[in-house]
Amino acid sequence: MNSFLEHPFATISENQSNLPRFAEGTPSAVETKKPWQESIQKIWSLPFYDDQERPSSEACKVASNLVQKSFSLSHKNGFDWLAPLVNSTDEGEIVLEWWQGSKKITLYIEGLHISFVRVWGPDIHNEMEEGQLMGWGNFFVIWRWLHS
Prior knowledge:
The chain is of the alpha+beta class. The protein has four helices and five strands; from the N terminus they run αααβββββα. It has helices at about 30, 35-45, 55-75, 135-145, and strands spanning about 85-90, 95-100, 105-110, 115-120, 130.
């Protein structure tokens, strides 16, 4: 994968086609409430200051797709959906954080590059893992871990 255009997160549709569908005639929770919409609004309106870099539009699109995918995965697998804490770093990375009990996942999105930290206790040497997200399969693994 040499091109950012080949990155698996770059090709996700910006419409709702990858979100859960319900039986015909039944109002979709996604269509009526869109619980992820507030998180996406936060991503696109993150404040920044003179000494900070603004997150790129690519990072905003990737973060928005991750929020929608987290909702979709939660719905399809019977997990409670958790809205992420949305923030940014001085370097222009978008930060998404989710907690479930003592477990925490933090994603750092810079352009099309996504790194993660997952934590399951206070000992940073033995109860923490860092890595790179390389596709939706990796995201599902850490999302399922958060809810296990």
